[in-house]
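User: Design a sequence. Structure:
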């Protein structure tokens, strides 16, 4: 597990997604991130490349800068395109947000895991403290708030500043929608680009770093509802055939499992088969779900089909495989998305 806080470095904006040089900065408690970044042959044109949700200046960009390795950062326009970059081996790995401490799981990432489960695997995770700022081009002739009609940001970021927006831009009447439209976009830095292109009337909720990148003014800082606002990212790499490297002795693993129960099955029954006792030594740490495609459109129950994302803590990977063997007959599909040290 890697920990980070907001990175103060700034980089120049690029008209097109271009690789960004990266230098090493120790941050991981283990000293390095997984060996997938170091095992590529030096002759490979894709050695040490990492895709992240851009454009530059996004919180994903700041998190990617904090990783302890030497590689090239490549911005991607959407979370799905980060996965596509890894699947096609355009980059060695990718960094995607999976959960925020205040707004919950990131649905775009979960949906991408459903789509690309056979092609990618999770190899590590990173925690990044997020501070949100209000950026825009203020009207010099009046209070900047009076001319704003649109707020742009990534959906989870908008949720993280709800109290600020409700207070600063209240609805015209109790039952009316907000007078200022809250418009979700693919990333916080793309929100900054949009605010830059519509001065006086639009603002972005994003990192303060975007002010220099996109010629904006910081109108308010640290507007997140909670000061401990933290986003968890996962590092994904191509899914290679065969087992992964053995964990260090006595290490506790966090194992990511994705499964879709059959319409007649019950997620409670499936989880009960974990047998949470001292002999099993497997603990459920997180559980999330997303709607999934009906397995049999002719069956009414199948339209309520969900895919579940389960995070398990265990010192024995063998126990997880034993559980999978017991439950796979209850599932349409089941995947171990990956594991990392807890």
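Assistant: Done.
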């Amino acid at each position: 597990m890697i920990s980070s806080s907001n990175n103060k470095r700034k980089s120049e904006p690029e008209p097109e997604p271009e690789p960004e040089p990266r230098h090493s900065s120790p941050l991981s408690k283990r000293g390095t991130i997984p060996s997938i970044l170091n095992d590529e042959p030096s002759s490979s044109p894709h050695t040490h490349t990492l895709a992240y949700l851009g454009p530059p200046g996004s919180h994903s960009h700041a998190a990617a800068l904090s990783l302890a390795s030497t590689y090239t950062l490549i911005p991607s326009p959407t979370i799905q395109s980060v996965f596509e970059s890894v699947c096609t081996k355009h980059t060695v790995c990718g960094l995607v947000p999976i959960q925020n401490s205040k707004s919950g799981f990131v649905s775009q990432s979960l949906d991408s895991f459903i789509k690309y489960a056979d092609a990618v695997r999770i190899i590590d995770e990173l925690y990044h403290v997020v501070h949100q700022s209000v950026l825009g081009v203020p009207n010099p002739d009046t209070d900047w708030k009076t001319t704003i009609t649109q707020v742009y940001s990534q959906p989870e970021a908008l949720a993280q500043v709800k109290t600020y927006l409700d207070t600063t831009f209240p609805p015209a009447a109790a039952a009316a929608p907000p007078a200022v439209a809250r418009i979700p976009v693919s990333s916080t830095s793309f929100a900054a680009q949009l605010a830059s292109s519509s001065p006086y009337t639009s603002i972005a909720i994003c990192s303060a770093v975007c002010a220099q990148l996109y010629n904006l003014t910081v109108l308010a800082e640290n507007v997140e509802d909670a000061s401990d606002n933290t986003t968890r990212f996962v590092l994904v790499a191509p899914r290679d055939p065969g087992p992964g490297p053995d964990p260090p002795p006595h290490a506790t693993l966090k194992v990511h499992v994705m499964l879709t129960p059959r319409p007649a099955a019950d997620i409670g029954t499936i989880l009960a088969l974990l047998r949470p006792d001292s002999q099993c030594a497997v603990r459920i740490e997180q559980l999330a779900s997303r709607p999934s495609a009906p397995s049999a459109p002719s069956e009414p129950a199948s339209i309520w089909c969900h895919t579940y994302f389960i995070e398990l803590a265990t010192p024995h990977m063998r126990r997880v495989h034993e559980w999978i063997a017991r439950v796979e007959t209850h599932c349409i599909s089941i995947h171990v998305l990956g594991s990392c040290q807890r």
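Residues 317-327 form the longest helix (11 residues). DSSP finds nine helices and 17 strands in the chain.
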